[in-house]
Write a structure and sequence with these properties.
The complex is a heterodimer. Chain A is of the alpha/beta class. Chain A has seven helices and 19 strands. In chain A, 19% of the residues lie in helices and 38% in strands. The two termini of chain B are 31 Å apart. The chains are: A alpha/beta, B alpha/beta.
């Protein structure tokens, strides 16, 4: 079916302001004109967009979701140390099931996105901008500091296209932690989730965004984050992909203020025929900016992963300090990783390090553990877990990290030693 | 084999890949004895140490090794460790993400289980670990780091002996534990080893230099060359080797 059919899917009601209506129409026009990316688009060389395209052009029947039950599931997921909950069911914001701490407000946008999305590579973000059911902006007042994480739970039901537009505006000197969960329900018809985030950190703001993707194994999942970091601000993004048949994450950070600092870590644990693609880009625009990136993966069976890490050090961004690494463990002859660092440097006095590796578990380390009496099976689990856990060093507080750690441990078959590792 | 022999190695042959390294090595060690293995580079010293610990980079192609009456060569590396074989690595491995304390406690409990003892409590374990760390003059902060993570060469070697002190094995195999140590670290390591000497514990020390043997005085010194022991003697043999090198012995072996 053609993309033209999307025009009939608009979720906009009568009371929608004019700017929003024209933004939606212009975005749809552009999407229909440019279409979805093909393998000729460099950023989509290893990942086919057809499954996403086909999903949106052949909409499944809408089924009513049991919001109360999903809310309950969400609450059990986030535990008791939560500062708040934002629940989105099939892309729809459930305000009655959500709560937020003082100092944080949710609003809808009051003007169109300032920068137009360009080209077919932006198809998924355009799709969200045109047709997302929800449009949430989290406003954190200046100097507000929230100790516990705010949880954002995205539920994508069978056959549903769950789309949300998310934004964070973090005021000067504020400090916030967010954990985003992507969940669904295994059924005969797959779900698709698609989220576009815009994050703006004001001077000296600190924000942490952990993303735990545990969708059913047949789901499609796409996210894009565009972050802008002002002077002295700090963003930590951690992306954990465990579920989904096809996953595409785009994470872009622009370091526009002096001393801005971004950490981008990610972990993909794939099996069967899963395909997980992480594209990241850091633009060092101001002086003395820092980026640290550690994406790693463990690939089993016939699964495939893609990592593309682009770092651009712009003219004048002297004193840039950037590191990037992408180690991978291939635990099957049929698994495949395509990894590519891209460095463009137009400034002097710059420190940039990058490296990607593909290998198996370190046999010497395995032997070392065995020679101390540790079972070879347990030694394998320990090394696997330790490899994953490296991505969590310095990313979030103990509670947030532990939540991710227990998810990782749950992915390692028969792994039981978590409690005594600390 | 006499009843009290701890380990009996007979006509041992081993390869690395297709290259034969050990070519008929025979050695018996009784409880309480300290044996030193010396020899030129490439003579097979480290191969012997690693074969005993069960490293699978080496293939045993002939001969036998009996340890406390059991066929050691049929055991997995972890089974050997639990039976009481400990290899102090020449190059201890850094394992970020696996905590030192965790590994040591898991190792101790595995050994204790094999001995038919109960698991050690967390409190008793920490007490034991602190006591042994003091012996090795190590900073207790090491316990909270990843295994050997960010340790200097000397700290890694000390950590090996520290682990040995906690696990109390029957056979301690030291693979060039003295290499890369300055004199102060060497004394600490030697002191640790000496404190572990006991009637029911034996040592097999692989070393290049006589220096270590001034601090840990062996009962027997063997010269390994071309994959076989070509000369055995007491500690004086080491002094003679220091003075004369290996050539006079190699000449003998050739003739």
């Amino acid at each position: 079916m053609s993309l033209e059919a999307l025009r009939s899917q608009s979720p906009l009601g009568e009371e929608v302001p004019e700017w929003r209506r024209s933004e939606r129409d212009a975005t749809l026009d552009a999407l229909i004109r440019d279409g979805f990316p093909t393998r000729r688009d460099e950023a989509w060389k290893y990942t086919r967009s057809e499954a996403f395209r086909n999903f949106v052009t052949e909409p499944k029947s809408k089924t009513a979701a049991d919001v109360k039950a999903i809310a309950e599931q969400a609450r059990s997921l986030i535990g008791d140390q939560a500062a708040g909950l934002i629940l989105l069911v099939n892309g729809v914001y459930c305000s009655e099931e959500s709560d937020l701490p003082e100092g944080i407000q949710i609003s809808a946008r009051d003007s169109a996105e300032p920068t137009p999305l360009a080209g077919s590579e932006a198809a998924l973000a355009r799709l969200a901008l045109a047709l997302a059911e929800s449009d949430l902006t989290l406003n954190v007042a200046a100097e507000v500091s929230i100790e516990n994480p705010i949880h954002i739970v995205h539920y994508a039901g069978p056959g549903q296209l769950a789309q949300s537009l998310m934004a964070l505006n973090a005021g000067a000197g504020s400090d916030i932690q967010m954990i985003e969960h992507f969940i669904g329900e295994a059924a005969d018809t797959p779900a698709m989730s698609n989220v576009w985030w815009r994050i703006a950190l004001s001077e000296h703001a600190n924000a942490t965004l952990h993303r735990h993707q545990q969708l059913p194994s047949d789901a499609l999942h796409a996210t894009r984050i565009d972050a802008t970091l002002d002077t002295g601000s700090k963003l930590i993004a951690f992306t954990l992909d465990m579920g989904g048949a096809l996953v595409r994450n785009d994470l872009n950070a622009r370091l526009v203020g002096v001393g801005a600092d971004v950490t981008m870590n990610g972990l993909y644990l794939t099996n069967d025929h899963q395909h997980v693609d992480n594209h990241t880009r850091v633009d060092h625009i101001a002086r003395d900016t820092i980026s640290n990136e550690d994406y790693r993966g463990i690939l089993r069976d016939h699964s495939r992963a893609v990592f593309n890490g682009k770092v651009v050090v712009h003219e004048g961004a002297d004193g840039t300090d950037s590191s990037q690494s992408n180690p991978n463990l291939l635990l099957s002859d049929n698994a495949e990783i395509d990894t590519k660092p891209e460095l463009e440097i137009y400034a002097d006095d710059v420190k940039c390090a990058h490296g990607a590796t593909v290998g198996q578990l370190d046999r010497t380390a395995l032997f070392y553990l065995q020679s101390r009496g540790v079972d070879s099976a347990v030694a394998t689990q320990l090394l696997t877990y330790a490899f994953c856990r490296e991505t969590l060093t310095h990313v979030g507080d103990d509670h947030t990290r532990r939540l991710a750690e227990s998810l990782i441990a749950s992915q390692i078959p028969e792994f039981t030693v978590l409690d005594i590792i600390e | 084999m006499s009843k009290q022999t701890l380990i009996s190695i007979k006509d041992l042959h081993a390869n690395v890949g297709d290259t034969p390294i050990l070519k008929g090595l025979t050695l018996e060690i009784n409880p309480g004895e300290v044996h030193a293995i010396m020899g030129p580079n490439g003579s097979g010293k480290s191969t012997l140490a690693n074969v005993l610990a069960g490293r699978d980079d080496y293939t045993v192609t002939g001969g036998s090794v009996e340890f406390m009456g059991e066929n050691l060569l049929e055991m997995e590396p972890e089974e050997r460790a639990r039976a009481g074989v400990f290899l102090a690595f020449q190059y201890p491995v850094e394992i970020p993400g696996v905590n030192n304390t965790y590994l040591l406690r898991a190792a101790l409990n595995a050994v204790r289980e094999a001995r038919g003892e109960e698991e050690i409590s967390a409190v008793d374990f920490m007490k034991l670990a602190r006591e042994k760390m003091k012996l090795m003059e190590m900073d207790p902060g090491f316990l909270n780091r990843g295994v050997n993570e960010g340790f200097s060469g000397g700290e890694k070697k000390r950590n090996e002996i520290f682990q040995m002190a906690v696990l109390e094995p029957a056979l301690c195999v030291l693979d060039e534990t003295d290499s890369g140590l300055d004199i102060d670290a060497l004394k600490i390591v030697a002191n640790g080893v000496n404190s572990l000497r006991a009637e029911d514990r034996s040592f097999l020390m692989v070393t290049h230099y006589q220096r270590l043997l001034s601090y840990i005085v062996p009962d027997f010194v063997h010269v390994l060359a071309g994959g076989r022991i070509i000369r055995s003697g007491d500690k004086d043999l080491a002094l003679e080797l220091e003075e004369r090198g290996y050539d006079w012995l190699l000449g003998d072996a050739a003739a």
